[in-house]
Amino acid sequence: MSALRVALLAAPAARALAPALAAAGQRPEIVRGAGLPAAPLRLRKLGEDLERVPLAALAVRLRGFDVAHAFAPSAALAAAWGRPRAAVLTFPEPVRRERLADRRLRLATLERALAGSAAVVAPDDAVAASLWRWLGVKAAVLRPDDGAGHAALYAELLHLESGAP
Asked: Which domains does the chain have, with CATH numbers?
């Protein structure tokens, strides 16, 4: 399998996954989308990090990544809108019921992020259980340091065979 270009949309978990992916023979790159002015969105209590979505999506699209891996619903919007061959969303922490709709556009962002992601990943069983309980989403459980597991997931999403060049 040839090395895939993987955009990791900036998050603490992205910094943990990048060296593991590189060790697994992939070509990860942390993408830090600059943000538009956030104050107008914060004042209206609109979502979280939505100001970063347009420029992060543009960075993913212009750099031609095979996979865009996000670690938050807003980053997953950017990943999907950037039109890589596959978008993946990891939830780094358990979903809590009281946080699903406590800001405007949060639930809508979450729904669009899930719809635009080819796969959803959880770092442990507790996060996977919360995704199933509150969202009805079955997530693959992959630790952030499991570069080979993530590479296999990407290959499966892109329908690559392990022996293909």
From this structure: 5-157 (3.40.50.2000)
